Give the backbone structure.
Amino acid sequence: MSDKAPSTQLPDTGSGSSADGGRSITGASILLDKVTKRYPGQSRAAVDGLTMEIPAGKIVMLVGPSGCGKTTTLKMINRLIEPTEGRIVLDGDDVTGINGDSLRRRIGYVIQAGGLFPHMSVAANIAIVPKMLGWSRDRIAARVDELLELVSLDPVQYRDRYPRELSGGQQQRVGVARALAADPPVLLMDEPFGAVDPITRVRLQDELISIQHELQKTIVCVTHDFDEAVKLGDWIAIFTEGAQLVQYDTPERILAEPANEFVENFIGSGAGLKQLTLTRVNEVDLQSAVTAEPGTLASDVLSRLDERGHDHAVILDSRNRPLQWLSRRQLSRLERIGADRDARLPLVGERASLNDALDIMLVSSVGAALVTGGRDSFRGVIDVETIMDAISKAHEHARTSHAHGKPVGINTNSMDAITAPRPAGPEPLPPEDGSRDGE
Amino acid sequence: MFEFVGSRFDQILFASWQHFSLVAQCLIIATVLAVVTAGLVYRSPALRSAANSVSAIGLTIPAFALVGLLIAPFGFGVVPAVIVVVFFAVLPILRNAVVGLTSIDRSVIESARGIGMTRFQVLRRIELPMAWPVILAGIRVSAQMVMGIAAITAYVLGPGLGGFIFTGLSRLGGANSLESVVTGIVAVIILALILDFLLVGLGRLTISRGIRV
């Protein structure tokens, strides 16, 4: 069923900023002001007096064990769940009282597996919100193609497909495209990458990061996967039951300074390793290396190694790309250096995380890796000491610096929640968290 | 037999057309009624089970008895015939419409609400199109069933092929009586097949490629 004419009824009540002029804004700030959600018949509030500031243009990750109220919190932002008490302020406007449907048209919403409408083509799915907003047909068609390209799907190939003709990852991409269709300043995501395989998930996460880099939306994303939160989040809010905000800070500081035992448990083992995912190879000081071109006398190279006190020499081709990485022993057996390419060179791109670099290093025979930059040209050598240095520096930095412009996040009904949420005893973690440590 | 059909061909054709037209129009009315009713009740579990009970019990009422009962308030002719046919046609469609509307994945509805569709838009743009294949299956069941029921309405002098069957049965043994009954039955079956074929075609045209089985 495809409605050709743009929908005529448009109950655009109140909300002044939903006019076309507002679309050039990339992100908008969100403020949850003492928001409480109580369900009838339940003694404990699902969300209890939460005040939380979400800065414009940032990715904020809401994490916590199942049933902690993080999804309820998310759905109160677009009022899919109406708060019992408190105010929702979007971009300075109190939106608690306005028409919920027109509010939701200004906020992108992505759920697990995309939530696509199976009876509509990809293009029709993406076009829904623009259609409801009364865009012209040409403008919608152009926008659909633009969005499909943004999420790396070829418009010609995918425009007219139906959701069931797409893979899980592709459906998720269309879901993101649909949420971005009317260029909303805010994007809400509810466990968006929960239903895809790990490899696709990593790719989708990387794409989300690059899309965000381009668009600078305000993104609020619910996940139960702390690693995902560390990877995507500018800020991470960790919740325990009743949406008690335990810690709201940058990933670096949460890893370096977990607020309490609950957060420590939630981070799971290997906080240090997770730190590694936060730093990129080009952010650390690489070590230089002795380099040589093919055709050089091996003895010359050996003497240069002696001079510098190095054990290995990197052989580069004419375009500065690494060909081989030779040890003293290998060099001593050669007369002249050949031009063969060693397929097993431990190479790592400079945009990779330290975690990836460490992984490559550990399997290489040298215990170090060659860093390459644009057009695979050689940048330097990264080894374990480099990484150790970087980690301790990052740790020190996170401990000492107070995050700049740290957003507010407290539960009004329990002011001490951030520092000491649980007076005594071990944290009652749901079993799933314990098991996830092993993954 | 051929003689009987040959000599009354125009009459048979006219009665067939009337029969078909009665069934088709009643189906349209029944579909609208059933879908509107389903749209009103499907969100409430209590109303939903009430609708299911009504359609289950309604189908047990003997059609012949209902036709007879309607003579008192509505007299003879087209009106009671339409009422009976619509009544029976609504039931399977209502049942399927309720099932179709309630079996849609919650996450689809949630994402429709989440992107700012009103309740009515969700019903019209998402739920009804997705439930349509199930509703159409109900319409096909109804169509088969009321083809036969429409013949019974000849008892109240309703339009259609029932006349051949009733007049034949009432003077069974007489000249051409059996031919008359057989002609009525065969014509009803042929009409049922034609209508079913048309409904399958309607499905092809109206069910989205994305949810076609």
Notes: Residues 62 and 222 of chain A are 5 Å apart (CA to CA). Chain A touches chain B at residues 1, 3, 7, 11, 78, 80, 101-109, 111-121, 128-129, 132, 162-164, 175, 178-179, 188 (CB under 8 Å).
